[in-house]
Amino acid sequence: MRDEYSDETKNIALYCRVSTDEQAREGVSLDEQQQRLKSYCRAMGWTEIPHVYIEDGYSAKNMDRPQLISLLKEVKKGTISKILVTKLDRISRRLKHLLEIIDIFQENKVSFISISESFDTNTPSGRLTLQVLGAVAEFERERIRERVFENMLHAANHGKWLTQSPYGYDLIHKELVVNETEAEVVKRVYDLYLNEGLGFYSIAKKLNQEGIPSKKKRGWSIRSIKLLLTNPVYKGTLVWNRIDRSSNKQVEKDDEDWVVVENAHPLIIDESTWEAVQKRINQASVPPRAKTSPHLLGGFLKCGRCGAAMTISWTGPKTNRKRSYRCSANKNKGTCTSQPYNASDVEDWFKEGLLRLSKSMNSSYIFKLAEQARNDEKQVINQQIQSAKNRYARKVEAYTAGLIELGDLQKEKSRMEQIVQEAETRQSTTTINTEGLEEKLNGKISSLIDAIDTLPVVEAKSLIKTLVEKVIIHGDKNIEIVLTTP
User: Fold this and answer.
1) What is the mean pLDDT of residues 329-345?
2) Residue 333: which residues within 8 A CB-CB, separation 6 or more?
3) Where is the Recombinase domain (predicted)?
4) Could you tell me the pLDDT band of residue 2, with boundaries at 50, 70 and 90?
5) Which residue ranges make up each domain of the chain?
6) Cα separation of 266 and 175, whole Å?
7) CA–CA separation, 17 and 59 (whole Å)
8) I want to staple 198 with a disulfide (CB 3.0 to 4.6 A). Which of 155, 192, 254, 368 is the partner?
């Protein structure tokens, strides 16, 4: 809409304001302000009749003034080219509000002129004054942010919850207390994701269909389920200062800037379960077609010749169409010589392969899985050690800046040393129960075979995802099943 007005058709606006107190104390007259502003316009050779906005009896302590609101609306419409005041404090006595208003003027290419201070944002000196005002305001904002951070840091280190309570907890005297009804839902969500293989969407849909309310009674969504599954609050950990909200776009800070307090409140999910869920979330995600395809191995089946995905093709007349898995590189590019395979045959081979796998689980394969699980555990331990060291480094910086006392720094050092010692002990004594691993794996395979025979394809595929990373076809009845780490 702004483009409809040229500079020639835009108006000059005069803004005059006086409060009752100012009129009595300083003898500031609205008529006097108008006369001075109109005289300035004539002196500058501006012949058009200006629009006058008169604010009678309103204080400049806030922006809730009818004439100011009306003026800003016209600015945003693009009908004004210049705004004049006798003094800056006519617009606002608060620097924060003044800068907010001037920002609006600049965004809409409006010159702002104060005739007493010789302030004109269209001149170099005016822009310099604006920059100085901005620097002062920025300094004050930083001072306020430092004070807020210091108070928040103290509260976080003493286990005080700093925002509204997450689902599963109630907030009582700034401390989290488990809400038993909601906690059962949290445990169920983790079980549905980790053990039954349901995705964010499927879990949200199930909870909504069952009429289970979310915290704000808005229903469950993909985002709310993901946040619930990734929030460390459920393992008893408080994480604060994670998001930078200083600009319009929220950005996650580097983890060394986070304030992390372990065992800050009662947990709902044990740490091993929480870490297992994070591992599954961070693993290479299964392609969307693997979740939604009505074909058992859609999204899982790979070509043994080139590694491309095998997709469903249909052959035969409409009355007797047959499914086949065909290499996508062969179908779309002609770069692979792999043959198509009857889909029902391949799915039968897959089930037979699972049966053989459960009966012939050899020790070398179990050892390989155990070694992978051991490496995963090592990685988690190393992350815990690094997080403890990062927290201590932040406390050193806070102590140097005078934000915390020496006693707080010493406590953090002792805590870091304890965490490192416990983690290193776990690392040196970590053992994997291979018999238990084999039993767990065989149990999963048996459950999966039963699911394939009894459940709808989409539900069976959810279970396949918890156990199988991919299936590679090398030829007739020759398939390779690659399992995920249990």
Assistant:
1) 84
2) none
3) 166-287
4) very low
5) 2-137, 158-282, 288-362+437-483, 374-429
6) 10
7) 8
8) 192
Asked whether 155 and 162 are in contact (CB, 8 A), the reply is yes
Q: Positive or negative CA dihedral for 203, 206, 209, 215?
A: negative
Chain mean position to CA 429:
36
Q: Over the stretch 192-249, which tens digit does the pLDDT of each residue have?
A: 888 877 888 889 888 999 999 988 777 898 889 999 999 999 998 887 766 666 555 5
The span from the first CA to the last CA of the chain, in angstroms, equals 60
Tracing tokens 């009306």 back to the chain, one arrives at: 70
pLDDT reading at 82 higher than 80: yes
Residues 325, 305: Cα–Cα separation, whole Å: 14
State whether residue 411 is helix, strand or coil: helix
Q: Provide the pLDDT confidence category of residue 185 given band limits of 50, 70 and 90.
A: very high
Q: Between residues 153 and 16, which one has the greater pLDDT?
A: 16
Q: Read off the pLDDT band of 364 (50, 70, 90).
A: low
* Residue recorded with tokens 């419409």: 77
Q: Contact, 160 vs 167, CB < 8 A?
A: no
Class of domain 158-282: alpha beta
> Which residue of the set 19, 165, 214, 462 is catalytic?
19
Report d(CA 345, CA 323) in Å as an integer. Answer: 10
Pairing of strands 111-114, 80-85: parallel
Q: How many other β-carbons are positioned within 10 Å of the β-carbon of residue 192? A: 19
Give, in order, the Cα–Cα distances in Å from 78 to each of 74, 147, 362, 486. Answer: 6, 40, 77, 63
Q: What is the DSSP string of 317-386?
A: -GGG-EEEEEEHHHHHTS---PPPEEHHHHHHHHHHHHHHHHH---HHHHHHHHHHHHHHHHHHHHHHHH
169/186 Cα distance (integer angstroms): 10
Six-digit token string for 434: 């291979």
322 confidence band (pLDDT: 50, 70, 90): confident
Residue 182, beta-bridge partner list = none
What per-residue string of b and e applies to 392-406 under the rule 16 or more CB within 10 Å gives b? bebbeebbeeebbee
- Closest of 74, 93, 83, 11 to residue 47, by C-alpha: 11
Whether residue 3 has pLDDT greater than 50:
no
Torsion sign across C-alpha atoms 99, 102, 103, 104: positive
β pairing state of 11-18 and 51-56: parallel
Q: For residue 123, give every residue at least 6 positions away whose Cβ sits within 8 Å of its Cβ, in sequence order, or none.
A: none
Helix (H, G, I), strand (E, B) or coil at 261: strand
pLDDT greater than 70 at residue 337: yes
Q: Is 70 in the active site? A: no
The pTM (predicted TM-score) of the whole model is 0.44
